[in-house]
Amino acid sequence: MEIKEKKQISRTLSIFQERLIPEPHAYLAGYAALMDAYDLKVPSPEKLAAISSQHKKYKTKDWDVYTSRYTPEDTLQGHLTFALKYEGVDLAILHALFQKILPQEIEAWVKAEPVGIYSRRIWFLYEWLCEKELSLPDAESGNFVDVIDPTQQYPAPPEISKRHRVRNNLPGVLDFCPLVRRTEKLEAYEALHLDREAHQKTGVIHPDVLARAAAFLLLKDSRASFAIEGERPGKNRAERWGRAISQAGFYPLTLEELLRLQRIVIEDKRFVPMGLRQEGGFVGVHERLTGTPLPDHISAKWQDLPRLMKGLLDAYERFQENGFDAVVLAAMIAFGFVFIHPFADGNGRIQRYLIHHVLAEHGFTPKGIVFPVSAAILERIDDYRRVLESYSRPRLEFIEWHSTKKGNIEVTNETIDLYRYFDATRFAEFLYECVHQTVEKTLPEEISYLEQYDAMKTAINERFDMPDYLEDLLIRFLQQNNGILSKRAREKEFSELSDKECQTLEVLYKEIFMA
């Protein structure tokens, strides 16, 4: 049975979606061709595909260019096959496409290729995304195939769909399913086994030193998390949030738990509505004269929040004790949460808490240690903002809204797919960079410092009868002045020390801390 296809799918263009096509006479292929032909109002993937008029296969920043031997049949079936084969699964594009085509087109394809790998995958994806069955009997033959290719994208543990004879290995559920592409950077980080390295490094440290390092890193992360939001919390507030972070991984991740965390984050609740938002939300500023919102990021519609949050939590539940990469999973859940922005305030700090929760619950971090991921993010704050903008800015053009009397915004079109289906690859790479810095640099440096500090205190104790607080002050003065006791310190707090004793302490400090 032949599929009758009259619609011309692919064409040559010089510019597509504000991207220069890398050469004249190149044809759009795969998702680019489908987005163009069906006028799909969805964000573009980071890379699009084109067929070259030359005999050369190459890549640019925005394009994967294939030679003519890769040219797909210029039909819906041909470009969908090309997309799955070379570009992977893009749920947002597929869902938008399925709203534009007749179900009979997919039915005809499956009837023509009842055991086809790509026909059955598309059949499953159509029914899964559209939540309705096509007029097709259950598949009776054909080897079971994966819905997403695990060599292209990170898969979840498969669930068998006998109707389509496929293994549903999508890493999520219908209402929350970001996808992560396998990249050289992610695979290189995976190969480092940073979790194993962190456990090995901390396993040989004296428990007392480790406990003090953990306490310092915890407070450091708490303060950094506030600093990312442009806040300077008091000592009590930072310690309070630090105690909450220290419990990451202890309690199941539920909506009630997230609401509990919000109550901890928001100390003064008089001006912040607690719980899931009951109005729109955005991140940005207001126009100075008119007060019109100028959003950098628009939060999910408040009407969609119960569905999206249930989806996020159900998706996370799929990954309990299954060996999925913990850092990749943490990026999917934490960044997904902050893009949904379910609360009026506190979303950023809870996002970072979710990173700690996933890493702790999946055994990535050593017991009792909180990686100061927020501190690493703060050091990379410009990169962090860029990675957030890589999600938010391309989506602004697909969101229709108007301002409210309160200076807020109200979204007027359907936007749920923007928050449940997205490519989380950049966020996974960024988070791995932060975790790598923590394991290779921050954690060893803090442990080394404490060991040196203890050695210096022992050296002082061997020579002087000095109370603890003075020993600590002495070491702090030496640190502040690059190993030299200042004239002020010699004349005031440590006036009882002779010049020779001061010189001895300075030599000791350099031998211990600066060797």
| Regions with little confidence, pLDDT below 50 for 5+ residues | 1-5
**SS-derived structural category:** alpha+beta
* The CATH top-level class label of the largest domain: Mainly Alpha
* Major sheet summary line: 4 strands, mixed
The number of E-state strands comes to 13
Query: Strand-residue fraction?
Result: 5-15%
Structurally, the number of domains stands at 4
CATH topology of the largest domain: Fic-like fold
**Helicity level, as a percent range?**
40-55%
Please supply descriptive tags for the structure shown above.
515 residues, alpha+beta, Fic-like fold, 4 domains, 4-stranded mixed β-sheet, 3-stranded mixed β-sheet, 20 helices, elongated, disordered N terminus
Structure description:
The strands form 5 sheets. This protein has a 4-stranded mixed β-sheet with strand order 3-4-6-5. The protein has 4 domains: 87 residues, no CATH class; 69 residues, no CATH class; 243 residues, Fido-like domain (Fic-like fold, Orthogonal Bundle), CATH 1.10.3290; 50 residues. Helix 8 crosses helix 14 and helix 11 packs antiparallel against helix 12. The chain starts with 14 loop residues before the first strand and ends with a helix. It is built from 20 helices and 13 strands. It is of the alpha+beta class. It is elongated. The longest helix is centred in the last third of the chain and has 39 residues.
What's a concise summary of this model?
By secondary structure, this protein is of the alpha+beta class.
